[in-house]
Sequence to fold (743 residues):
Amino acid sequence: MIVPKVVRWMDERLRISGFSKATLRRIFPDHWSFLLGEIAMYLFLILVGTGIFLTFFFSPSAREVVYNGSYAPLRGQHMSQAYESLLNISFEVRSGLVMRQIHHWSALLFVAVIVVHMMRVFFTGAFRKPRELNWIVGLTLLTLALLAGFSGYSLPDDLLSGTGLRIGYSVALSIPVVGTWLAFLVFGGEFPFGNIISRLYVIHILLIPGAIGMLLGLHLAMVWRQKHTQFAGPLRSETKIVGTRMWPTYAIKATALFFLTAATVCLLAGLFQINPIWVYGPFDPAKVSAGAQPDWYLGWLEGGLRLMPPWEVRAFGLTIPNPFFPGLLIPGLTFNILYAWPWIESKFITKDREAHNLLNRPSDVPVRTAIGVAGLAFYAVLFVAGGNDVIAGLFNLPLELVTRSLQVLLLALPLVSGIVTYRICRQLKNRGAARHAHGHVIVRTSDGSFETVEPEKA
Amino acid sequence: MTVTEIEEKRAVRRIAVAFAISALAGLSLAAVYVSGGQVQAEGLLLFLALAGLGWGLAEWAAKLLPSGPEVGDYADPPRPGAEREVAEVVEEGWEESFGRRKFLFRMLGAAAGAMGLALVFPIRSLGPSPGTSLLRTAWRRGSRMVREDGQPVRAADLAVEGILTVFPEGQTDQADSQTVLIRLDPSVVRPVPGREDWTADGLIAYSKICTHAGCPVGLYRVATHDLFCPCHQSTFDVLNGAKPIAGPATRALPQLPIEVDDEGFVVAKGDFSEPVGPAFWNMPQ
Fold:
């Protein structure tokens, strides 16, 4: 066998035995929800692979050209070289379109899986001591994933993404005191910013993926060092970990998961069109399309801009513009609270500063779960509001009614869902506690069968 | 054969089928590429090739390999020499070096701080100073109105309720100068006090840039005489100084004073009434 031979050759030179043996024997707890982060990592690999292919054909240039390619409806139109090169990737480069679509679908799923992974970590208390640092690294990875998405989908220089950029510029402009300078430095000047595409390109293909790669390494190293958390169960405790060994079973399962993840995005990419930039047309600062929605993970920000009432602060000759509140204050608060959450919780809610390897069930900590559900409800309403015009059109309702209802829901739904969640968790917790206190009661019925009943009914 | 042996045999057969499907799909994928490529076929074949591999390996791990559960320890066994806390080692080294030389340590801090500050300055190269660029547009007294293709606009070009996107002549690349020119029935316009002579023959001109987040206010709804921004649905009353009547915008669209010159061309009488576009912190109020 060649593999053991290679390993022996390496071991004789690099003495990898000590570290590698421990690695191969490592135990991973089994639970479907522990695979979410792994899927995100595989999507990152797919994004890097397809992204490298795309860089060979994309030209990040704002230079104006006249299109003369094979897509007839746009022939003769003036457009940037960036947009033209994207049309060429889609229509001229063989297997270019499937690569582009795999890249875009993977990006959408990448953010989605990270969000679900984070929800799992939050609701099971996996961020508690000793894993607070990894929570911070994970949140930073989410931030970077959002920036990667925004910078990437702005690159084609089509009408939709150009509109996204100008909204981003307006939000940057709205920051008190530093907004004008910040917007000019980030975008390289006043709208429509000559060289933003080349700037975004460097950010998208070098800075962000580099940072994601490094932090991903750190994220994994910390999981490695601290070992994965597990749910309570037979033999499992704060000191004993139960699961599958790294080699060979877990490694082969993980490889299988990589292929299945890749298979899923390829199926989506082949059968479901995504971001058809040739339909939107090239960017023109004097044009805009109706019913325009950003990629899903920016929907909550777009929804906030749409739901914000027409208020802004004007005092002492200074202005805090309207887009500042939904565009920066809400996301700023969101991420700050999330970053601080492990400490907020241990100081004010659970008063628990012990290290944990066993996970909570969501009902174990009703306050945390209630706050989490309320938060999700808040962002869900914002997300829906990002498509208020689509909803109004779909159900034939007046736009103002839809907007007004969503404004009310934005305040009411988190409150109601939080309270209901809290009640349910309390009940589940009490029931569990009662069962632990009294044990199960098995009774024999008159016809001879057995049945488990609640202790208090026995 | 025992039950497990039968099950194992079945698993082996299924895994072999999965890998065979994958191999066939892989070969077909190559054939599709050679014959010119086709996105749906490529997606489907990639799916089959990858899913075959994934399914086969997953089944292999689940049915043919030991699956535990195995038990291990969370804490690694203590290593020799690990008894002394790392913090102690750090503290000792600190005392030996910086702790004993407070003056030098402060000088080191000053040098590092000064260099750090100097390294911030190149960020300034990333963009120009905002200066007055947000306060002014390319419109000047006497600027002739042209369409996006550079063709000048005559007053007679627009019928009542007609709308055009216009720029100052020679400045069609100045995005901040984009303007909507609308012809109204002169009897319905209620001019803002002080702007009675800013319109000509029912022609009225407003900045096309939404005062909320900067999208072009692209949609003119004739029935209600309002301009609607499709991005965040701010709505501006054209008859009443383009004041916002719905949506998140808080400020009216700036108005451009216009007149018709002797040759019948529409010209500006100056720049906009206020800075155009989204607000910023030190915007004149």
